[in-house]
Amino acid sequence: MGSAHPDADIYPEATGPAAKIVAAHQKDEPITLYSGWFCPFVQRAWITLEEKNIPYKYVEINPYNKEPSSTREAWYRRWDVPKKTGPPSR
């Protein structure tokens, strides 16, 4: 087992009925939904977008994939917050 996280090798994309919805939302839109199809928190936002008929682009992201070439690196770097355990130094 070479992966650091047990879910790192999770199936990389949505399947079945979810895959049809993903395929229908690949063109550029004002809203981009970065999603791990397996995440219940993302699913809540996804259901809301669908129910309200809000146009969005779906981009599949595996949050456990740390490879530099992944799509995650292109957008996630600006949201990375340094992990510090103490108060800021003065």
UniProtKB/TrEMBL annotation:
Transmembrane segments: none annotated. GO terms for cellular component: cytoplasm. It holds the Pfam family GST_N_2. Coiled coil: none annotated. InterPro entries: Glutathione_S-Trfase_N, GST_Omega/HSP26, Thioredoxin-like_sf. Signal peptide: none annotated. Residues 29-90 form the GST N-terminal domain. This is GST N-terminal domain-containing protein.
